[in-house]
């Protein structure tokens, strides 16, 4: 009887303790929060983040297409594109990045921002599964050389050139050092 109670208790903890519910998004960390920059198409409401680590870009594997994309999505009512890029990056990767400035725009209107993630990510542990709360859209986060990829590797084939342009204009993020990981 005790074993049955103990096993039931452990199962209850595992089921209720591991949630896939979206945590609240962190405060928007964006240097550019205005959407009146001439760089934007006037009718766009989609934004994403380009993140560089060493000689690779952080991309996610989209759940439905099984192809690569940058973290991004649509702005909510009253939200700037920079803050949308910040929130979407958190929701799809779990990273609380800093959004710097727009660097490119895709044919479909996605504004790509240069973003940095200093001392936040141990890149030796990539690729890794997306956080449980992000797995509605993405299944994996990894680092990829955009100049080794082909159009068919991407969720939207037309995005390859804008992604490469954004990559070149994006400053390097500093991965977590081995000292900061172990302390």
Explain what the structure shows.
The chain is α+β, with helices and mostly antiparallel strands and 183 residues long. It contains four helices and ten strands; from the N terminus they run αβββββαββββαβα. The strands form two sheets. Strands 2, 3, 4, 8, 9 and 10 form a six-stranded mixed β-sheet that branches. Strands 5-1-7-6 form a four-stranded mixed β-sheet. The longest helix is centred in the first third of the chain and has 16 residues. The chain is globular. The relative contact order is 0.21. The N terminus and C terminus are likely disordered.
Overview features:
183 residues; alpha+beta; disordered N terminus; disordered C terminus
Strand content: 15-25%
The N- and C-terminal alpha carbons lie at a distance of: 43 Å
Assign the structural class, choosing from mainly alpha, mainly beta, alpha/beta, alpha+beta, or little secondary structure: alpha+beta
Question: How is the main sheet built?
Answer: 6 strands, mixed
Specify the helix fraction band.
10-25%
Name the shape in a single word.
Answer: globular
Report the order of strands and helices: HEEEEEHEEEEHEH
Instruction: Characterize the quaternary organization of these chains.
Output: single chain
| Number of DSSP strand runs | 10
Number of helices: 4
Write the SSE topology.
Elements: H1 2-17, E1 46-50, E2 52-53, E3 56-62, E4 68-69, E5 72-74, H2 81-93, E6 98-105, E7 111-116, E8 128-129, E9 138-144, H3 160-169, E10 172-173, H4 178-182
Parallel strand pairs: 1-7, 2-10
Antiparallel strand pairs: 1-5, 2-3, 3-4, 3-9, 6-7, 8-9
């Amino acid at each position: 009887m005790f074993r049955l109670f103990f096993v039931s208790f452990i199962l209850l903890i595992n089921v209720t303790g591991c949630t896939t519910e979206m945590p609240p998004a962190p405060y928007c960390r964006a240097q550019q929060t205005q959407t009146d920059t001439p760089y934007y198409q006037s009718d766009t409401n989609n934004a994403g983040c380009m993140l560089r680590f060493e000689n690779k870009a952080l991309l996610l594997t989209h759940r439905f297409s099984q192809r690569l994309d940058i973290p991004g999505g649509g702005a909510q009512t009253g939200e700037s594109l920079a803050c949308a890029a910040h929130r979407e990056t958190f929701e799809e990767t779990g990273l609380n990045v800093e959004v710097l400035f727009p660097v490119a725009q895709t044919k479909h209107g996605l504004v790509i921002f240069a973003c940095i993630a200093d001392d936040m990510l141990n890149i030796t542990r990539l690729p890794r599964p997306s956080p449980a709360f992000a797995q509605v859209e993405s299944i994996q986060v990894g680092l990829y050389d955009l100049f080794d990829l082909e159009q068919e590797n991407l969720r939207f084939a037309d995005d390859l050139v804008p992604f490469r342009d954004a990559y070149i204009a994006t400053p390097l993020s500093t991965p977590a050092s081995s000292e900061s990981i172990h302390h």
